[in-house]
Prior knowledge:
By secondary structure, the chain is an alpha+beta fold.
Amino acid sequence: MPEGHTLFRLARDIDAAFGGRRARVSSPQGRFAADAAALDGSVLLGAESAGKHLFVGFEGDRHVHVHLGLIGKFDVNQGAAGAPVGQVRLRLQNETAYADLRGATQCELVGPSRRAEILDKLGPDPLRPDADPERAWQRISRSPRSIGELLMDQAVLAGVGNVYRAEVLFRHRIDPLRPGRTLRRRQFDAIWSDLVDLLAEGVRTGRIDTVRAEHTPEAMGREPRVDDHGGEVYVYRRAGQPCHVCGATVRTAELAGRNSFWCPRCQPRFRSRAVG
C-alpha cells in the first residue's frame, strides 16, 4: 500500500499539472460518471494529502476523496490523452496533461463537512506543517497495544505504512511488540522526528531509503538491494538475511494484519521492570 510520501508527491504533481485551471473530468469506467459530469469543466483549485488520503479540490468547495488502497494507481502524465487503458475510474485532463485513477478503494465526491469528518479521524501526519505530535503521544502513551500495531493505526499516526513502521523501529532499537504505554516520551519524540525526516526524504526521492550513511552499499561494500519497492532498508522484507548492523538473522511475523520485520539482537524483546 502506498505510504504517506507517495500521496504527498501525488498531490504535488496534480497541483503542478492542473492547479488553478479548468479540467475535463470523466469516468471511462463509469463508476464515477455522475459525479465526474458534475465536475466537468470546473476549476481544479489544488490537491492535498493527509496520511494515505488524497483530496482534489474543485471550485464550489467540492473535493474528490481518493484512497488508493493496496493496488490503486493515480498516474499523472504530460501531453495529450489517448484512449483509456484498463479500468480508469477517474480521468482529469487539460490541454497539457492528463491523470488516470485505477484500482482505488475509494473515489467519492465530498463536501466540506465530509472532508472535515475524514480528516478528524486521522492522527497527525509527519509531512503536514499543521501536524500535532502530542495527539499521537497521548494515544500511544495510554495504550496497551504494541507500538508496531499503533504505528500502523491511521487514527493514531497518519501516513506510516509497513515499510516505515519496520524501519523506524529498527533505527530506534525498539521491539515491535513493546506496549505503547511503556515508551518514554524521549523515545516517542525521537521516532516522530525521524519519521518527519524519513518521509520528507521519501518525498524528495520518490523511494524509501532508511539506512544511515555507514550502512549504504558503498560504505559496506555490499550489493544494492533489489526489490520492487526500491530503496535501501535495514529489515523490511529481509527476513532470513543478516542484519546490516549486527549480522543476526532478520525475523518476520504477522502484526496488525501485515508482516512485521525486526532484528532480534538490535531490537531485543521488551521486558517490563515493573514488580507485580
